[in-house]
Each structure stands twice: as structure tokens, then as C-alpha cells.
Amino acid sequence: xxxxxxxxxxxxxxxxxxxxxxxxxxxxxxxxxxxxxxxxxxxxxxxxxxxxxxxxxxxxxxxxxxxxxxxxxxxxxxxxxxxxxxxxxxxxxxxxxxxxxxxxxxxxxxxxxxxxxxxxxxxxxxxxxxxxxxxxxxxxxxxxxxxxxxxxxxxxxxxxxxxxxxxxxxxxxxxxxxxxxxxxxxxxxxxxxxxxxxxxxxxxxxxxxxxxxxxxxxxxxxxxxxxxxxxxxxxxxxxxxxxxxxxxxxxxxxxxxxxxxxxxxxxxxxxxxxx
Length: 275
Description:
Blueprint: H1 7-33, H2 38-43, H3 55-63, H4 66-97, H5 101-112, H6 118-131, H7 138-161, H8 166-174, H9 179-190, H10 192-208, H11 211-216, H12 225-230, H13 240-261, H14 263-270
Membrane topology: Multi-pass membrane protein
GO biological process, one term: transmembrane transport
Protein name: Carbohydrate ABC transporter permease
């Protein structure tokens, strides 16, 4: 018997639609004001544009050298994700498959690192980064993202590895497969759902991060998209028309990426067994 469509269901649907529209309001303001002249934004930011100035995007493209900023953000995000997946997946698998006091303590240390605010380690990090010549370098920023991203990534991989039947690994070992081969040929392919989840979460974080790149990257040619877009919001001057257009250009790639892979988030976090 199919479920009945009740008044309660109808009310919940209406509430869901209203909440969804509320969350879309900021996107509305960003989008419509990115195609307005500056004066129109000051007069009424909520009004529909009388004319659509897509030239704002062309100006922003040239002013902040968007292709360069996009490339910097892409390189940092891609290589940070590769390193975080490799380090966290292997570390989590080793901790789960070698149970003991040391593995438990190490896991607790990594998980505890997630609750440490970035502001408390910001100054020591910059001093250490300067001593190791990691500042003003994309490679240095990527290495720092390894340190800050491993705790959460390892935590997610650790929980998922526990669902992988150890009998599969034991069978491969009996057939002569090395531990390295067991991980890459047997275990890692089974970690695909949580791997995609880790990549999505880290991409949203790294792509939109502002504070760490601001501290590490000084040269203009090394700026990421958030840093480039912030140039329109100075202390005494705020170019809302240019700045909002830059924000739209910056968030569009990551929104497309998220919408394309969002279904894997639920699969990765909620998966409780390996078929």
C-alpha cells in the first residue's frame, strides 16, 4: 500500500520550500547586483536590474587577471587533495589494521587536532614557515594544507576502513600479495565513496579559504581567487559591482563541482557496509 499524502506532509513540504528560498536569498543579491552599475546598487540592492551590465565580468576578468588566479586556486586545490587522500587513507588503514595502544593514542591526537582553532597556531606557523622557506610559495601552502586537512580526512577514512572485511585482505596475502599491493589493489578501490566525500569537503574548504593564503602568499601573481576578489573591498573603498562579479566568477566552478558530486557525500558518510 502506498503512503498517503497527508496535510502534515503538505505543511512540511511548504516549510522546506520556504527554508530553501531563505537560503537562496544571498545568492539572489550576489547575482543581481553583479550585473548592476555601482550607483544602482547603492540606491536599491534588492531591486531587479534595469539593465544587465555583463561588462562587469569582462572588467573583473582583466583587473584581477582571473585566469591566473583560477589556475593558482586549481593547482593548490588539486595537489592538496591528492596529498590528503594518499596520506590519510594509508594512515587510517595502518591504524585500523594494527590495533594497539600506539594506534589508539595516535588516532586521538589526530582527532584532537580538529578542535584547535587556527588562530592559536597562526603566528607560530608563520614563523616556522618562514624558517623553512615555505612562505610566498604555492608548494609551501599545499604542505600547510596537508597538516590542517589530515585530521578530518583521517577521521573519515578511519571509520570507513573498519567496514572493509579483513578476510579479503587475508586472502590476498595468502595469494602472495604484498601489504603495499593489498592496500592499492584491494582496499583503496573499496574506499571510493569516502574518498569522493573527502575530496568534496576539502575542495569546498581549500577553494574558498582566505586567511591561510593571505598569510602565506604575498606576490600578486600567486593570489588565489578569494584573495584576488578581496582587492575590490579595501578599507575606505568598496567596489560592490566589481567585487560581486568577482565572487560569482569564483564560486561558479566549485558550485558546479559540488552539484556534480554531491550524491557521493551521503553515500560516503552513511555507508556502513561493503557489498
